[in-house]
Design brief:
The complex is a heterodimer of chains A (354) and B (458). Chain A is built from eleven helices and 15 strands. Chain A is α/β, with parallel strands linked by helices and 354 residues long. The interface between A and B is large, with 41 and 53 residues.
């Protein structure tokens, strides 16, 4: 009886896998893994070469299998770390704990070079958003040496440093994503506004919630629960003029962006080289230019009511040469806002320092 | 195609089951042959023609030898088989070394190593020698002979199945539900060893190797090398034996808990038994074995272990690996034998020697090997650091599982329970165990990208 059951189960599992893979319609995208999946067309270009890829990606219950695979490592093998990420205190942390000294030196050179080019007197200010591991209750071997980064930046960058490291805590971050939640930035607004001499106002926002957020690290631990994204909107933000270099007019919270791949893209439409936000009804006539990475996408809406114009420059997608030719830096406040993830991988910034 | 792939599990195997078990008995060999060639084609494309060509030549030479025991034909066969193996596997190694030694610049050949050539060459050789020795009659049917060589369960990574061992089953075999289920269990255990243990170890040690290494982490990696190679290769053999059983074949065992061996001599009686058996029967004994003087005996052992090392790959480290075992075998045979007592100490000694051997086996770059061996001795490294502690903590369970799985303890326990009153309970547990391993292995396979078998490169 036992043998019959084993034989039957084996054939059944294999048979169901085969039948459903080839009869169910192909899934074109995996929200969980944030990528396109291989579909049947690929078999036409090479059945033998592509069969395994196709079947691995279209097999029924794929997401459940992915969750089992991850749970096996985390819970049965008790290995906190796999797929270049680890779990601590209920948060998925991308492994990034080897400090790249060369990268930090290059980051400093790049920042100083930009500052010299855009302001005659180097009057810029800058801040560092820490990776969530900074707030972890973990041993130091799992963290970047933040003290070292901070010391180096403070001693070498010509500009005013805005220290925000102690303003956040772990719960300000998404569990399955690298980013801070938008509401966390309320804690640091005054630091930036003080620097440019603007008083923080008591602005009313409506808090809105979007469910089913699968963060960038979710696929590495797919048995986590999807999270929610909360964003803060009001009439001011709904009426500002947002313009992207690549795609023209957009919204602050953009539901036409590629949110199927990444719900975080609702913040200023996701990755973008150059964005201008104009606000006629701003609390000041000041204009702010932010050299930034993706963290600034969710912070900028909260700064928008205070500035007549904010220009966001992401040097991962556009070269400094283009920026210098096309952006006016005269009489602007200039902020460099980068996360430690970028500082530790600064080759990604398209700045050629002679 | 590899056994531990989604396309093998959910495409190749179910279609083969469907056809094989619904057609009349007389068409089953041809079905197995066609599917075996498809299996090989998926991995090696048109090298499948080389496989057919090589098998056909050996079949024809075998027939000649069968008709007339003529050493000339045997020699032609051996030259042909070894010629193919040397051409595909060793030519570039020799060219590189000649170039280095004599300051020449002979260009390398643009050849790739056909999958499993070391295995099917040895099967062909064993067949010719056995026919010559009249240990077995030559095969009369070409398709049956190619089926024997190309039989997919053992084609690309062994075990090295001898024709005489499956001749009868090629002609007539009985596929039963019990055999099938036994095969499924064995296959699943092998899949688990490979996917859940060996691949996990591989992923872990590649991460650790990129960290700040300490003396302890060097030993941790060495331990992981050992377990990974064992679970990878013995897992493959389990899958091969299991698949064979599903289709009515009974392949001989290839491993017998080698990591609990009590000496290096004992280790080689338990590790890759089909290969050591081959070298014993077709090289060592024909050279005179131990029925000759001491010096000649040492020479014979030297030849066998040089060849064993070299068989594993065209690289100096494999040759060193073989010679490393030669030294310990000689030491045991002529010096330690008198003082040897089987016990914990002898097993620890063996495990230690074997662990170091797998460092030589795994680190193919001679410079890197030197650095690693220095690391194992603590030269230029600290004893322990935070990263090592972190990795130790993260890998302690897989290491423990590997230790538990390396001995026959669980098997003995199950056998004991089977004799007792808890047999029914055991059946339920066995079923749960089977389902869990299968589902977990499939899950890990889907979520991972790495799974080549180590022994494929041989």
């Amino acid at each position: 009886m036992k043998n019959k059951l084993i034989a039957f189960t084996f054939i059944l599992i294999l048979g169901i896998g085969l039948t459903l893979t080839f009869t169910l319609p192909d899934k074109k995208m995996s929200t969980l893994e944030r990528r396109k999946l291989t579909t049947k067309e690929v078999l036409e270009s090479g059945f033998v070469e592509n069969l395994d890829d196709y079947m691995s990606e279209q097999i029924p219950f794929r997401n459940t299998f992915l969750a089992f695979g991850s749970a096996f490592e985390r819970y049965i093998l008790q290995n906190e770390e796999s797929n270049d990420s680890y779990i601590k205190d209920g948060y998925i942390i991308e492994k990034n704990y080897h400090l790249d000294e060369v990268s930090i030196d290059n980051f400093i050179k790049k920042l100083n070079f930009i500052a010299d080019k855009v302001t005659p007197n180097g009057d810029v200010f800058y801040s560092v958003i820490p990776d969530k591991s900074y707030y972890l209750n973990a041993d130091s071997s799992l963290k970047l040496d933040y003290d070292d980064i901070e010391t180096k930046l403070r001693s070498s960058i010509e500009g005013e440093y805005i220290d925000i490291l102690e303003c956040f805590e772990l719960s300000d971050y998404y569990k399955t994503d690298i980013h801070l939640k938008q509401e966390a930035y309320f804690k640091i607004l005054d630091k930036f506004l003080d620097r440019v001499g603007i008083k923080e106002e008591d602005i009313k926002y409506e808090k809105k919630t979007l469910d089913d957020f699968y963060g960038a690290s979710f696929s590495k631990v797919p048995f986590f629960k999807p999270e929610s994204i909360e964003y803060f909107s009001n009439d001011i933000l709904e009426n500002v003029h947002v313009s992207h270099l690549e795609s023209g007019k957009r919204e602050v919270y953009d539901f036409k962006a590629n949110t199927e791949m990444d719900l975080y893209n609702i913040f200023l439409s996701g990755p973008s080289a150059l964005i201008e936000i104009e606000n006629e009804g701003a609390y000041s006539d000041r204009e702010l230019i932010i050299f930034r990475d993706s963290f600034a996408s969710s912070m900028t809406p909260l700064l928008t009511p205070y500035f007549k114009k904010i220009t966001l420059i992401d040097l991962r997608y556009i070269s400094l040469d283009y920026v210098l030719k096309n952006v006016d830096f005269q009489n602007k406040d200039i902020l460099f806002l980068y996360s430690t993830l970028i500082i530790n991988k600064s080759s990604i910034l398209k700045v050629n320092v002679p | 195609m590899v056994f531990s792939s989604i396309s093998f599990l959910f495409f190749f195997l179910p279609i083969l089951f469907l056809i094989y078990f619904t057609i009349p008995q007389k068409y089953r060999n041809i079905t197995l042959l066609i599917f075996s060639l498809i299996f090989y084609f998926f991995g090696e494309k048109w090298y499948v023609l080389l496989l057919i060509f090589s098998s056909t030549i050996n079949y024809l030479i075998g027939k000649k030898i069968g008709k007339k025991k003529d050493k000339k034909f045997l020699l032609i066969g051996i030259i042909f088989d070894l010629g193919l193996l040397i051409y595909f596997k060793y030519t570039n190694f020799f060219i590189e070394n000649f170039n280095g030694l004599l300051n020449l610049s002979i260009p390398s050949l643009k050849v790739i190593l056909p999958l499993g050539i070391s295995f099917f060459t040895f099967q062909n050789l064993s067949y010719l020698v056995d026919v010559y020795r009249k240990d077995v009659e030559c095969e009369r049917n070409l398709l049956d002979y190619i089926t024997y060589i190309a039989l997919f369960p053992q084609l690309v990574a062994g075990p090295i199945v001898r024709y005489r061992d499956i001749k009868d089953e090629l002609l007539e075999r009985k596929e039963t539900i019990d055999n099938f289920a036994e095969g499924v269990m064995r296959f699943t255990i092998g899949l688990g060893k490979k996917v859940l243990i060996a691949d996990t170890l591989y992923n872990s040690y590649t991460t650790i190797m990129a960290s700040d290494l300490s003396l302890i982490s060097y030993w941790l990696i060495a331990l992981m090398f050992t377990f990974q190679i064992y679970y990878d290769f013995s897992g493959y053999s389990d899958m091969a034996i299991g698949l064979g059983k599903m289709f009515g074949f009974n392949f001989k065992e290839n491993f017998n808990y080698p990591l609990v061996a009590s000496s290096i001599t004992d280790f080689w009686r338990r590790w890759h038994m089909s290969l050591s058996g081959f070298f014993k029967d077709y090289v060592y004994i024909p050279l005179g074995g131990n029925r000759c003087g001491k010096i000649r005996n040492i020479f014979n052992i030297f030849i066998v272990w040089s060849l064993t090392g070299f068989w594993h790959g065209a690289s100096w480290n494999f040759l060193f690996w073989g010679l490393y075992f030669f030294l310990f075998l000689i030491l045991e045979k002529f010096i330690l034998k008198k003082h040897f007592k089987v016990g914990i100490l002898s097993r620890v000694y063996t495990f230690l020697i074997v662990t170091i051997s797998f460092v030589i086996f795994s680190v193919t770059d001679i410079g890197a090997l030197g650095t690693f061996l220095k690391g194992l001795m603590g030269i230029g490294t600290e004893l322990l650091n935070d990263e090592t502690l972190y990795y130790l903590k993260n890998n302690i369970v897989i290491i423990l599982i590997s230790f538990i799985g390396m001995g026959p303890w669980l098997k003995k326990l199950i056998e004991k329970i089977k004799k007792g009153k808890l047999e029914k309970c055991l059946s339920v547990l066995e079923y749960i165990y089977f389902i869990s391993i299968l589902i977990m292995a499939i899950s890990v396979l889907i979520s991972s990208t790495f799974n080549p078998f180590i022994y494929f490169r041989f």
